[in-house]
TrEMBL record:
Membrane-crossing residue ranges in chain numbering: none
Domain CBS residues, every copy: 24-82, 84-141
Species lineage: Archaea, Methanobacteriati, Methanobacteriota, Stenosarchaea group, Halobacteria
Domain of life from the UniProt record: Archaea
InterPro entries in alphabetical order: CBS_dom, CBS_dom_sf, Diverse_CBS-Domain, ParB/Sulfiredoxin_sf, ParB_N
Protein name (database record): ParB/RepB/Spo0J family partition protein
Keyword list, A-Z: CBS domain
Gene3D superfamilies: CBS-domain, Conserved hypothetical protein from pyrococcus furiosus pfu- 392566-001, ParB domain
Length: 276
């Protein structure tokens, strides 16, 4: 739940100070350098978290990394020590998320091992962790701004709750979404990277305020419920919300009324004809 103090909005400086060790994954599968390649292949086939395994010694010191590419055309009677990648890009736990994300972007890596000053493996920091860290800091700020706006406009006190809500119960306040962005939101939902919705509850009605693409993507994935920040407006203090008027004027009774705009079909967008 967002803090209700006047300084609760997230500032850029605060985000710059978020550390890697706040978001890194610490429950990591590892392998020793003496393990056989066949064993590693079987473990990767079973579903390795990072499409490979960090290689550590008995003191958890990071020695290298072995992934599926390293194992191509390698026979099973070889050890991990003979095939692993030894030159790794690593980060320290005190590095900021912003700087770690910059390293991921510039190197093309999807994840980075996190080690201490002695080289001990502490965890893994992925591009998904970077996205999640930003979501968890920007969403509460938007929720707080919405809450303040409602309290100022209606002279009332608004409670905020983070909970799952039924997608079918949402009343949209936006007439259209874009097809290409829907695909991105579907990917985020499937990989647990989606930002929670922001909704306003007024009596028995719940208005969707922020996250129409996410809600529509969830609907297309046949999800019944999704996580949201819900601002509860007391009906005894407020007769009608501006969101209610917007929905009524737009003829929006449910997400089924929201149009999906395929921007590629826009009349000002041209497609080239392939050579015959």
């Amino acid at each position: 739940m967002p803090d209700r103090s006047d300084d609760s909005n997230v500032t850029l400086m605060e985000f710059d100070e978020v550390r890697v060790d706040e978001y890194m994954t610490t429950d990591i599968e590892t392998v020793g350098p003496d393990a056989w390649v066949t064993d590693v292949v079987d473990r990767i086939k079973e579903g390795s978290q990072f499409n490979g395994l960090p290689v550590v010694d008995e003191d958890e010191q990071l020695l290298g990394f072995v992934n599926a590419i390293d194992l191509l055309e390698i026979y099973g009677d070889e050890s991990v020590d003979e095939v692993m990648t030894r030159e790794l890009v690593v980060v320290r736990p005190e590095m900021t998320v912003k700087n770690a994300a910059r390293v991921i972007f510039r190197t093309g890596h999807q994840f980075l091992p996190v080690v201490d000053e002695d080289g001990e493996l502490l965890g893994m920091f992925s591009n998904g962790d970077a996205v999640r860290s930003q979501i968890e800091r920007t969403t509460p700020s938007k929720v707080e701004s919405t809450r303040r706006m409602l309290e100022r406009n209606h002279d009332t006190s608004i409670d905020v709750d983070e909970r799952e809500i039924e997608i079918s119960s949402l009343i949209p306040t936006q007439r259209e979404v874009y097809a290409d962005e829907l695909e991105g939101r579907k990917y985020e939902l499937k990989n647990d990277l989606a930002e929670p919705l922001i909704a306003v509850s007024h009596g028995s009605t719940t208005f969707l305020v922020d996250g129409h693409h996410r809600a529509m993507a969830a609907r297309r994935l046949d999800l019944d419920r999704t996580l949201a920040y819900v601002l509860d407006v007391p009906v005894e203090d407020v007769d009608e919300l501006g969101f209610e008027m917007v929905a009524r004027r737009g003829g929006l009774d449910s997400l089924a009324d929201v149009e999906v705009n395929d921007y590629v079909q826009h009349p000002l967008i041209e497609k080239t004809e392939p050579d015959r």
